[in-house]
């Protein structure tokens, strides 16, 4: 699903996926409210989401989608890579953050990666996340939890694998987020990989 308030951008993006055999554009929306309606109807696996839109903006839409349709992976596609925008998007639980100047192949790869449960970040966004000062490194136990997160395991599965409670898993993740200076699982995995922790 493509969500952008500019018709020209939507047309351009649709064109980028026209002859890609394994990716189909099933819906388009010009704002957040349309996106929520289209999500109900079209059931997309991935949404490419602009941040600045009239009515319900990108972040508001992402938060609603995460609640109503948690199975939809959202990739922010924007012209803005300010710290505030990136932080808000990551906190809302996006699977990726790309800039609109991303090449066609990178967009295709990003959609496939997000659909498969992976995380995608534009190089400038990844650099900004990585360059944040780290207070300290995660402990070996916290890294064990993070390794399982990187493999796509949910908290319940992690608890079962490591023979700890779900509450303990959440506590470990809270500490990991704080130590890596991130706010989501996807961002934690990306930053940990870039820093050579995983």
TrEMBL record:
Residues 130-196 form the HTH luxR-type domain. Residues 1-115 form the Response regulatory domain. The modification 4-aspartylphosphate is found at residue 50. Keywords: DNA-binding, Phosphoprotein, Transcription, Transcription regulation. Coiled coil: none annotated. SUPFAM superfamilies: C-terminal effector domain of the bipartite response regulators, CheY-like. Pfam families: GerE (PF00196), Response_reg (PF00072). InterPro entries: CheY-like_superfamily, NreC/VraR/RcsB-like_REC, Sig_transdc_resp-reg_C-effctor, Sig_transdc_resp-reg_receiver, Tscrpt_reg_LuxR_C, WalR-like. Signal peptide: none annotated. PANTHER family: TRANSCRIPTIONAL REGULATORY PROTEIN NARL-RELATED, TWO-COMPONENT RESPONSE REGULATOR. This is Response regulator protein VraR. It comes from Nonomuraea coxensis DSM 45129. The gene is vraR7.
